Amino acid sequence: MNLRKFAVVAAVATFALGLSACGKEGTPTPSGDSGQTGAATSDACTSSGTTFTPASSVTLTGSPTYDKIKAAKKVVVGVKFDQPNLGYKDASGKRCGFDIEMAQMIASKLGVDPANIEYKEIASANRETAIKGGEIDYYVGTYSITDKRKKDVSFAGPYFIAAQDLLVRKDESAITGSDTLKGKKVCSATGSTPIQRVRDQKLTEDSNIVEFKTYSECVSQLLDKKVDAVTTDDAILKGYAAQNQSQLKVVGKPFIDPKTGKPYPEKYGIGLAHDDKALRDFVNAALESAFSDGTWQKIYDGTLGKSGSPASPPALEKY
Amino acid sequence: MGEFFHTLTDNSDIFVRAFKTTIELFLIGAIGALILGTLLGAMRVSPIPVLRAVGTTYVQLIRNTPLTLVFALLVFAVPKLGVNLDYFTSAYVALIAYTGAFVCEAVRSGINTVPAGQGEAARALGMTFNQVLGSIVLPQAFRAIVPPLMSIFIALMKNTTIAAGFSVLEAGALQPYLSERSQNQTYVLLWITLFFLLLIVPLIGLQRVLERRWKVAR
Question: What ipTM score was computed for the predicted complex, to two decimals?
């Protein structure tokens, strides 16, 4: 009966289609430890152990933001939640990281108990709007100081200077810097400045550029050996390396701008309302004292420092 | 107004690149889905119970899975099983597998519009299943399904933007790219909308042409 014949042909063709699509790049890799890589990662938040006692007498006048904070007895801080050891929220809802503790340090100087901080998760694209609209009192979350942003908001700091770097697997020896990426798969967030640099400067072939929405997805692909390096600001990479010390490391050689011969500086600042100079001066003073009394170092060593790469406080750029 | 045009002209490199990939994804996705969908449709009306069951299970499973999840399974879960598809292949497989399920249902509904007497008459003339389906039933079925098929393809065109989240540089990646180049977001999104409109207009035109050409008095 020919009905049956046709049906069989159809079925075979369907499966062949499916299989040929799968088989194209289907070089099965020895599975090794790729199956349990995720399990080794600890998601739980640990703080650096620094305690922040709220200041009892705060002298800060002429700042509308502070008047609001004082009246409400709480502070609203914009943060990130998906950067381990930087701005992170773990499965139990606890927050930790370098930026989070910076935010707590500033809150305590403003006389607010860190327990009374209301955290708001603000996506990068919405930061200026949130600050301008008064939705948050200040923002701490890998917020680079740029002239363009200074038109909308103002910055205290920098409290950290990041540079573009590479995160690789611990056993990687071939990748030692930006000039060794040829033929290697490099991952970063879709359209982010670091990956646009890799593309524009042809540091690796176009077909080896991998882009995902979040860095966590890139790190997952790195652990699965589907990519060879993840690139972005070293602060973010150190956070992942600190979370996964046994499997990941930061190369520690900043990308160099061919125009200036220097690393691309990403100066992280505290985002504040544009016209609140009183608060900006206050936050700068708070940062200055944290730099000099060792608080900054203690926070760094207990968070990003766990990655094994040391750092010291940057110089403030007051204006 | 000048800034609006500069958003395009200053970034034409990335616009051209992204939309080229979108068109590629769409064309290959559409052809693949049409083939897969027709085969699945044939399976679902075949006289063999096993094939019908396989077809039904596939369609119900895929049609009820969000496309993002299909992508995520291919990109994040399949590598854990030791199979490494590159990101482009994953995107094609995801789009074809997903859209194919919808095409299948359109084809099946088309087959159902063909009066049973047509098939019976063909069989009475001694035609085989292949001939009945290929020469009598499917040509009449496709006529009926032009509008729903075009809706599926228009949806596919827009669905290609999901690939941007899984390492394929296409139109969906323009917004993050140009946001990073500090372009005016409103203008960027307006341009993307405009280009999608331009891509979809020919599809609507094609639908008109096919409907007119295949129109028959019933």
Answer: 0.70
